[in-house]
Amino acid sequence: MNQESVMHYQVDPWNYYMMRVRRRRMEEEDEMERVMRIVSESAVVIFSSSSCCMCHAMKSLFCGMGVNTMVHELDQDSKGKQMEKTLMRLLATNSTTLPVVFIGGKLVGSMDTLLAFHVNGSLVPLLKQAGALWL
Amino acid sequence: MASQRIGELDFSEPYGIHHRINNPSSSLINDQGSGFDFGELEEAIGLQGVKIRNDETKASAFFTGKPAATLEMFPSWPMRFHQSSIGGTNNKSGGESSDSALSSKNENPFEPESPLSKKASSFCSSDQLQHLQLQQDMTNNNDVIKTASSPKSAHEKRKGGGSTSDNKPLDAKTLRRLAQNREAARKSRLRKKAYVQQLESSRLKLTQLEQDLQRARSQGMFMDWSGGVGSNISSGAMFDMEYARWLEEDNRLLTELRNGLEAALSDNEMRVMVEGYLCHYDEVFRVKGVTAKADVFHVINGGWTSQAERCFLWIGGFRPSEIIMMLIQQLEAVAEQQIMGMYGLRHSSQQAEEALSQGLDQLQQSVVDTIAGAPLVDGVQQMVVAVGKLANLEGFLRQADNLRQQTLHQLCRLLTVRQAARSFLVIGEYYARLRALSSLWASRSRDQTIITSDENSCQTTTDMQMLQPSHNHFSSF
């Protein structure tokens, strides 16, 4: 595949371009798979940054509710940047969105959606359903 | 000042003349009536005046009117004038002592030789009313002369200014003083009129300015904030203006809600009003968010709130759990299930508040560490990092406002329409009382009264959760 791309570079730029696009999409899919894999490992998964204070707020919210969460510090991950980009794509937003929380493998969102769910009263049933809360 | 002297000139001489020729002049007046006197007056104004002084009868007629007219200026002092000349003059001087301040200002050496043209002009400039008074006084004088009895002697003696005939040397000074006083009084009346007119015009201007301000405020709501149309106005000041306007709108909506509840409107109509009120709150949160992008400290520190509100501020606004607790205590006719729902809502918001507060604490700690850890020389790098961290404040404010917004919406979902309307009224009343408390407190500290120990303990506790809703006694809604 690589040799082909090199050989065809000067001759067929369009093909080369398409190959690049396809590769990027595969990488993205890899990333997405990776994220999905991570979030399915635990009932509540938080993607955060160790220096972000809003992430700390989200962690303390779950702690206060007595929920065990798995926290992924993206700034300490080698592929953290890419994961962050993936998350941004998931949330369909262009700004940095950390923290992002997944409950039961499903995307919940950023802090504001989490707070909205909590005030709604729909967060607790969701947690119970995911098995993160037993009371 | 010239006319001042003229004033003196006018009245000092004729007084001297007048009482001497009291009786003959009265007969003259009797014969000729008021019309003649007017003619004489016009003649006097037209003349260069020496004629008048020389012609005693004419002068008497001329001045008969004038002094009498000016005498009318002091209707409260008629009795003093008809004493004996000396006594009368004494009284006059006593009576006019109130004008002494004015007259002293107008004190000028008496100059008999000043040209009469000035005298004429002073007559022209004086009130037309005096002419009317003159005419009126003529008729009075006529009555007086005709009866010629003691009850009317007051007029006579008032005109005369004294009964004895040898008071002229004494009267000259007092007459001069009287004349000066009269002039001063006239001038002060004119000044007062001018001042009142000025006041009226500035009052009109003030109302116009207020209207302009209202218009500008309403236009300010549609201005692009970041565009900076009012670039010389700080965004904090603009937010204060916007908030004031929002408060007015709030009052209006609350009055509507109250009237709607009292009039027992249908549920649909009440729902429309409640939805409108929710949108009203959404609006203030939106504006706060926009302002926070420009000036987060102003919004978070609550510079736009009253003092008492600021005391209980939590991240730039009210603490939702406190409001819910107050509503639980103050609302009546709430079903058990609804109360349970409200307790649950309060619990959730408490957890969220706790989380946000902890996040904010960590932010503060991190900023402090960054700044404190900066080397003494060239700590620019740390400063940049600290500034970057402070940018997170806006995020916290947004989350806090989001929490408040969600709490209000959830409250409306939990309660019936009428209960929701009542709860909005309770909240509005609560904030109105907080604002009233602030102004009361401000005036109280001005009076420097002793602060009660209860209030001391309220304000010295560091935990701002200590607001006791039970202390607020609201009328039942």
TrEMBL record, chain A:
Gene3D superfamilies: Glutaredoxin (3.40.30.10). Keywords: Cytoplasm, Redox-active center. Pfam families: Glutaredoxin (PF00462). Residues 44-108 form the Glutaredoxin domain. It is found in: Cytoplasm. CDD domains: GRX_GRXh_1_2_like (cd03419). InterPro entries: GlrX-like_pln_2, Glutaredoxin, Glutaredoxin_subgr, Thioredoxin-like_sf. GO terms for cellular component: cytoplasm. Belongs to the glutaredoxin family. CC-type subfamily. This is Glutaredoxin-C14. It comes from Cicer arietinum. The lineage of its organism: Eukaryota, Viridiplantae, Streptophyta, Embryophyta, Tracheophyta. The gene is LOC101500299.
UniProtKB/TrEMBL annotation, chain B:
Residues 82-92 have a biased composition (Polar residues). GO terms for biological process: DNA-templated transcription. It holds the Pfam family bZIP_1. Residues 192-219 form a coiled coil. Residues 171-215 form the BZIP domain. Residues 236-444 form the DOG1 domain. Residues 93-104 have a biased composition (Low complexity). CDD domains: bZIP_HBP1b-like. It is found in: Nucleus. Keywords: Activator, Coiled coil, DNA-binding, Nucleus, Transcription, Transcription regulation. It comes from the Eukaryota. PROSITE patterns: BZIP (PS50217), BZIP_BASIC (PS00036), DOG1 (PS51806). One of its GO terms (cellular component) is nucleus. One of its GO terms (molecular function) is transcription cis-regulatory region binding. Residues 82-128, 144-173 are annotated as: Disordered. Its main location: nucleus. Belongs to the bZIP family. This is Transcription factor TGA9-like isoform X3. It comes from Cicer arietinum (Chickpea).
